Structure formats: structure tokens, C-alpha cells
Amino acid sequence: MKIVGLDSLIFGVEDVAGSARFLTDYGLTPVQGTEIGDRFEAIDGTRW
Q1: What three-state secondary structure class fits 32?
Q2: What 3-state DSSP class applies to 31?
Q3: What are phi and psi of 12, to 5 degrees?
Q4: Rounded CA separation 26/35 (Å)
Q5: What span, in angstroms and rounded, lies between the C-alpha atoms of 39 and 45?
Q6: Rounded to two decimals, what is the model's pTM?
Q7: Where are the beta strands (DSSP E) in the chain?
Q8: Given this model, what pLDDT does residue 34 score?
Q9: Sequence spans of domains, the chain
Q10: Contacts for 41 with CB less than 8 Å, ≥ 6 apart
């Protein structure tokens, strides 16, 4: 399901590595990573 009306969401978390594992397990594709966080993309292009 595509997020309608939004292009992206930003979440603040304490455990960046654990959150990245969760999003990857959920089926999102990592598209960019930095020392302070990562970006993930759904199949439809929606980004987290």
C-alpha cells in the first residue's frame, strides 16, 4: 500500500541498527545509509 499524500517519513529511534534490521525484515530496501541513520524504500517508491 502506497502512502498517499506523503513522500517520506522520518522516525527517531535509539537503536538505529536494530531498527534497520526490522525495516529490512519487513521488506524495505536500504537506499542510503549514514552514521546517523538509514533510508529505506518500499517497492512503490515510498521512502522511510
Answers
A1: strand
A2: strand
A3: -100, 125
A4: 22
A5: 12
A6: 0.64
A7: 29-34, 37-41
A8: 72
A9: 1-48
A10: 28, 29, 31, 47, 48
Residue 30's SS3 state is: strand
The maximal CA–CA distance of the chain, rounded, in angstroms, is 29
Residue range 1-48, pLDDT digits in tens: 565 666 677 778 888 889 889 989 989 898 877 776 788 888 887 776
The whole-angstrom separation of Cα 29 and Cα 34 is 15
Other Cβ atoms within 10 Å of 6 Cβ, number: 9
List helix spans (H) across the chain. Answer: 16-26
- Residue 46 has a pLDDT of 77
d(CA 2, CA 25): 18
pLDDT at 48: 63
Residue 20 has which C-alpha cell?
534497520
C-alpha grid cell, residue 36? 546517523
